[in-house]
Amino acid sequence: MAENPPLDVISICGSLRKGSYNAMVARALPGLAPAGMTITPAPSFADFPIYNADIQNERGFPAAVTAFADAIRAADGVIIVTPEYNFSVPGGLKNALDWVSRLPNQPFAEKPVAIQSASPGPVGGARMLYDLRKILVFLDAFTLNKPEIFVNSVASRVNEKTGELTDETTRDFIRQQLAAFAKLIARVERKK
Ligand SMILES: Cc1cc2nc3c(=O)[nH]c(=O)nc-3n(C[C@H](O)[C@H](O)[C@H](O)COP(=O)(O)O)c2cc1C
User: Fold this and answer.
1) pLDDT at residue 3, rounded to an integer
2) Which end of the chain is less enclosed by CB atoms within 10 A, N or C?
3) Distance from the CA of 188 to the center of ligand 1, in angstroms?
């Protein structure tokens, strides 16, 4: 339909932990998306080697890196849901971004990106979001400004047994962000 063109969005979870709260938030996204937006998980970055230019120069980009980058290129938008580690971006996620940043046809260039964080702590990972934004500036992504999503006290907002995000207030905030993200994507696509 003209008003809701299909939007294929991928989500990247910055935590590799099986019981990850951020993964619970990421898994909730498809059910909170506006009409026409599908959200599927990006290929994993768990097996990326630690970035080393010698690997790139001697063996080329690992297949897992190109698969991850291809999925980003193919998507209309990317949502990154990640914990805060030591007030900043977790090393595994930063490493993944470092790898794709070296690719020709760098996949984040002019790509709409929304970011979210979740933490059991009182600030919800908010201190990390600005470091992530800074990295996305270098990558030339079009990062959604508002509304911001940082889910504090996340343990009290999920069902630990089922792994579902149950808190209605949080779910509503995320719905609002996804609606704003759909508008940003539409604006970017109109200008192409
Ligand atoms: C190395 C490390 C550093 C952390 N630093 C922070 C921090 O700066 N701020 C914060 O709110 N939580 C911090 N935490 C706690 C994480 O928010 C918590 O472990 C959270 O559950 C991780 O996200 P996940 O559940 O999606 O794996 C840290 C955890 C680890 C393992």
Assistant:
1) 62
2) C
3) 33
